[in-house]
């Protein structure tokens, strides 16, 4: 069974709503810029994909993750025609990697006021929308799609409407950790390119409203199903076998086979290990059909938005299916050997009728999630 997406919202470094985000991605516009949120002199990497809503360069404030989340959820709820002043009884599921860790950093290092109760997004969601059934999932970079999987399960168990969201912002601890495990500080994300340097963090939030019965409301697209697993292969290194298993389960749950997939929205972080592992898994599953779907990686323009990345890509993928337009993978000039035979969209947006898409999200610890989406009928 498929579930209707009746509302969408998004905010990222390259767009403050779904329309602007999709337009800029199709135009190949990247959100990378010099680091704004904290002192560049303390870091070897000096670039990131931030949402430019701070009061001044180098000046950071608390609750930015919460603010982006409320923005995206509000957009999605209004788009779905729901009463945004009263979401009581509607499950709101939030996927995140770091929650309000940046606010904790500012509290600890600068004495910024930040009550412990506001660590949980439920506090702000209740105040803004009267949402009284909120849940936060922290599953690294797969958190958004894990929340989507739970949302699908709730609909299958009888829920009428579910709001699913994902959010993350830069934290100095994670930024510093990533720059120290990469041989050369990257200046941009180049997924699947032989000369890629590694990953840079991005910021953003996305939300969708899932409906059991649309009730005459416009439908952006359908979620056929979501597969999740945890192969626990390594703390950070991905396992192609675990990824391939998640993809095969998603195909089975979604009632599709590789030849049915028109679009692959890959995880594509630009890291030295992840891209090769993802390409190896896809080649294993798709085999002779690897040249059929178009393939793109939007992190080349949004950066890696951690727990928000899966749902940002979900929103973009649904627009791709609706419009038959696919953003390019910016900076992909010489694909790695493992990706040979795939039809990457590069240079400019591709135009082609699309019906079924696969969306990948993989996180530290072997936390894998794959969704199968379908164009609105």
UniProtKB/TrEMBL annotation:
Keyword Ligase in annotation: no
Any one Gene Ontology molecular-function term assigned to this protein's record: 3-oxoacyl-[acyl-carrier-protein] synthase activity
BP-aspect Gene Ontology terms: fatty acid biosynthetic process
Highest taxon in the source lineage: Bacteria
Domain Ketosynthase family 3 (KS3), residue spans: 1-375
Similarity field: Belongs to the thiolase-like superfamily. Beta-ketoacyl-ACP synthases family.
Official protein name in the record: 3-oxoacyl-[acyl-carrier-protein] synthase II
Species, as recorded: Streptomyces melanosporofaciens
């Amino acid at each position: 069974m498929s579930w209707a997406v009746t509302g969408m919202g998004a905010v990222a470094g390259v767009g403050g709503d779904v329309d602007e985000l999709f337009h800029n991605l199709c135009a190949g516009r990247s959100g990378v810029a010099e680091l704004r949120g904290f002192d560049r002199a303390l870091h070897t990497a000096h670039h990131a994909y931030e949402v430019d809503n701070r009061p001044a360069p180098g000046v950071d404030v608390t609750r930015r993750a919460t603010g982006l989340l409320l923005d995206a959820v509000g957009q999605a709820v209004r788009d779905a025609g729901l009463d945004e002043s009263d979401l009581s009884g509607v499950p709101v599921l939030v996927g995140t990697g770091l929650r309000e860790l940046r606010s904790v950093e500012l509290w600890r290092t600068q004495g910024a006021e930040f009550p412990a109760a506001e660590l949980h997004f439920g506090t702000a969601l209740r105040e803004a929308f009267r949402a009284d059934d909120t849940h936060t999932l922290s599953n690294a970079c797969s958190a958004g799609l894990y929340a989507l999987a739970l949302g699908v399960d709730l609909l299958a168990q009888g829920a009428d409407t579910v709001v699913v969201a994902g959010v993350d912002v830069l934290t100095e601890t994670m930024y510093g950790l990533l720059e120290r495990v990469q041989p050369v500080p990257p200046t941009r994300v180049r997924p699947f390119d032989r000369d890629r340097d590694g990953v840079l963090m991005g910021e953003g939030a996305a939300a969708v409203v899932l409906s059991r019965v649309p009730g005459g409301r416009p439908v952006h697209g359908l979620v056929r199903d979501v597969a999740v697993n945890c192969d626990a292969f390594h703390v950070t290194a991905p396992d192609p076998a675990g990824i391939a298993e998640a993809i095969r389960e998603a195909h089975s749950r979604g009632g599709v086979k590789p030849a049915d997939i028109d679009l692959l929205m890959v995880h594509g972080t630009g890291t030295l290990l992840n891209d090769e592992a993802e390409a190896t898994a896809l080649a294993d599953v798709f085999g002779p059909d690897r040249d059929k779907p178009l393939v793109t990686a939007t992190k080349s323009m949004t950066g890696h938005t951690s727990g928000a990345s899966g749902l940002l890509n979900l929103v973009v993928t649904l627009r791709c299916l609706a419009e038959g337009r696919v953003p390019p993978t910016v900076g992909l000039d010489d694909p790695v050997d493992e990706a040979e035979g795939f039809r990457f969209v590069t240079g400019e947006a591709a135009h082609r009728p699309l019906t079924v898409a696969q969306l990948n999200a993989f996180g530290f610890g072997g936390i894998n999630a794959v969704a199968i989406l379908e164009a609105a009928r």
